[in-house]
Amino acid sequence: MIDQTEGGIYLNANELNKLDEKEAELWHLYVAGLRRRMDPATGIADCDSYFILGKFTMVGARPGIGGKKYDKQKLQRMLARLVEIGLLEPCDAAQRLAFNCVLADRAGGSASESDGSET
Questions:
Q1: Residue 98 belongs to domain with CATH number
Q2: Whole-angstrom Cα distance, residue 47 to residue 99?
């Protein structure tokens, strides 16, 4: 399991622009659920299971504020929305909960340098 929280998670301007004015739950899923597990060399975030993804995106209750945990169907809808807005591409492997974070910078260069596209 890859967890990038030790070195920090840095979003570039392209990622921030895509997330601009989106729901807080999409921000939370993208940053806490996916980007923290992204392999910096490949840009692939492998999540193992919806249970694990749910654990990373769970918001604990605090006094006066209820907690939040997303079920599999809600996570699927949120992931589809991140694909729709252009932040993710599903990996091809069947039965694998993995996504290419297409706009995220890669180790040693930006996402645009890695895939040959322009930003």
A1: 1.10.10
A2: 8
Cα 20 off chain centre by = 15
Map tokens 């694909």 to a residue: 83
Q: Is residue 40 part of a domain?
A: yes
Mean pLDDT in consecutive groups of 10 residues from the start of the chain, 119 residues? 61 94 91 90 89 84 81 93 95 80 83 46
Is this prediction's pTM over 0.85? Answer: no
Shortest CA distance to 102 belongs to which of 51, 24, 34?
34
- Bridge partners, residue 99, by sequence: 45, 90
Please spell the DSSP secondary structure of 80-111, one letter per residue.
Answer: HHHHHTTSEEE-SSTT--EEEETTSPBTTB-H
